[in-house]
């Protein structure tokens, strides 16, 4: 009887923890998780004069070569620095989003860094986030993944913690101090067993006026022994979030990739969204697999995206260019084949 009660309590505790973190996507989801497992947060920063664009990525991976790390992407100098730490220097709260990696702290309100590598690279300072705008979380649709967030054992989960926010504070890169006061930022995260086999991702919140953000992704999604091309697109515009996703019934009308462009058109019953991304030189990052941080992912922070939102009669609701876009195109051969097989072009 004692064994049965212990198992029931353990299962109830796991379910309670799953529900608690599900409704709070920002939190660390890895407590008690066996490998393979990874979780990482992506802080994108653009200075007020737009001369500095960077991303700070704190993360942890559990597996054969388990460790914590902070990956820093410098979009101006086309440089990536990777700071690695033993798992013993990683800590995450079980009640809120607060992560510590050695002397570096990350929360929804901002982060502080004290990074020094064996090669002599150094990055120190503190940045604060103001008036964050998270993707809405409800019981039926707990975040950007919609009801798919309820599905256990998905290969990769995704969360958008702030579509757009103001920045304050500064960072010192190898003796060069950058003031981020008045700049704009974006914050998202991923967690699960591995990045998708193939995907495209883009994000920008720098348009002709503030208060606009685009995030879009198409990826290979494993599903019951097979796979399908999953679609998630969100356009935050004038206080309203326009969603186009597999779980909303959105259609993928155009999906094309050339050396110069990524073309993506999606539609719902009432709206059509056309995206044309101008590709720019990428910076090689490390990405998680089920074994280690072995995947090579090229990311640009200098792409441009033409965004056009219209109604079904063709009337334009928005037409603009997003600057300083993050853009990743990763092993898309199978993804393109899957989309083609569904009849899209």
Uncertain spans: 1-10
> What is the tally of beta strands?
22
Q: State the assembly state of the protein chains.
A: single chain
Number of helices: 2
Arithmetic mean of pLDDT: 92
Number of domains: 1
Let me know the largest β-sheet.
Answer: 12 strands, antiparallel
Helix content: under 10%
What is the N-to-C order of secondary-structure elements (H for helix, E for strand)?
HEEEEEEEEEEEEEEEEEEEEEEH
Which geometry do the CA atoms define?
globular
- What gap, in angstroms, lies between the N and C termini? 60 Å
What structural class results from the helix and strand content? mainly beta
How many whole angstroms does the radius of gyration measure?
Answer: 20 Å
Strand content: over 45%
Features:
single chain, 345 residues, mainly beta, 2 helices, globular
Write the layout of secondary structure elements.
Layout lengths: L1 H21 L14 E10 L6 E10 L4 E8 L4 E7 L4 E3 L5 E4 L2 E4 L2 E7 L5 E9 L25 E18 L2 E4 L4 E9 L6 E6 L7 E12 L2 E12 L2 E6 L5 E7 L3 E7 L3 E8 L4 E5 L7 E17 L4 E15 L2 H9 L4
Antiparallel strand pairs: 1-2, 1-12, 2-3, 3-4, 5-6, 6-7, 7-8, 8-9, 9-10, 10-11, 10-12, 13-14, 13-22, 14-15, 15-16, 17-18, 18-19, 19-21, 20-21, 21-22
Task: Describe the structure in your own words.
The protein is mostly beta strands and 345 residues long. The protein has two helices and 22 strands. The protein has helices at 2-22, 333-341, and strands at 37-46, 53-62, 67-74, 79-85, 90-92, 98-101, 104-107, 110-116, 122-130, 156-173, 176-179, 184-192, 199-204, 212-223, 226-237, 240-245, 251-257, 261-267, 271-278, 283-287, 295-311, 316-330. The strands form two sheets. Strands 1, 2, 3, 4, 5, 6, 7, 8, 9, 10, 11 and 12 form a twelve-stranded antiparallel beta sheet that branches. Strands 13, 14, 15, 16, 17, 18, 19, 20, 21 and 22 form a ten-stranded antiparallel beta sheet that branches. β3 and β4 (79-85) form a beta hairpin. The radius of gyration is 20 Å and the shape is globular. The termini are far apart. Mean pLDDT is 92; it is low at 1-10.
């Amino acid at each position: 009887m004692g064994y049965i009660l212990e198992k029931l309590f353990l299962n109830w505790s796991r379910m309670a923890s799953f529900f608690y973190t599900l409704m709070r996507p920002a939190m660390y989801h890895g407590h008690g998780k066996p490998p393979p497992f990874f979780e990482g947060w992506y802080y994108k920063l653009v200075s007020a004069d737009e001369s500095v664009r960077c991303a700070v990525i704190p993360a942890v991976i559990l597996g054969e070569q388990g460790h914590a790390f902070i990956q820093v992407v410098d979009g101006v100098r086309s440089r990536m620095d990777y700071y690695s730490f033993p798992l013993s220097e990683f800590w995450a709260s079980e009640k809120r989003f607060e992560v510590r990696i050695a002397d570096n702290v990350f929360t929804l309100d901002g982060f502080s860094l004290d990074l020094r590598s064996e090669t002599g690279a150094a990055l120190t300072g503190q940045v604060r986030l103001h008036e964050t705008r998270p993707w809405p979380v409800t019981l039926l649709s707990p975040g950007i993944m919609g009801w798919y967030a309820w599905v256990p054992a998905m290969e990769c989960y995704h969360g958008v913690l702030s579509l757009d926010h103001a920045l304050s504070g500064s960072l010192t890169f190898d003796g060069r101090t950058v003031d981020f006061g008045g700049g704009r930022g974006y914050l998202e995260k991923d967690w699960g067993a591995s990045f998708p086999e193939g995907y495209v991702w883009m994000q920008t919140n720098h348009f002709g006026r503030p208060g606009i953000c685009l995030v879009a992704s198409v990826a290979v999604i494993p599903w019951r022994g097979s796979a399908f091309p999953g679609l998630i697109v969100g356009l935050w515009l004038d206080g309203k979030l326009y969603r186009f996703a597999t779980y909303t019934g959105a259609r993928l009308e155009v999906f094309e990739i050339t050396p110069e462009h990524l073309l993506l058109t999606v539609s719902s019953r009432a709206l059509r969204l056309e995206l044309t991304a101008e590709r720019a030189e990428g910076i090689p990052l490390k990405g998680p697999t089920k074994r280690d941080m072995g995947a090579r992912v090229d990311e640009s922070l200098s792409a441009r995206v033409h965004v056009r939102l219209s109604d079904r009669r063709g009337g334009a609701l928005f037409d603009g260019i997003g600057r300083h876009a993050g853009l990743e195109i990763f092993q898309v051969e199978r993804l393109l084949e899957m989309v083609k097989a569904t009849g899209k072009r």
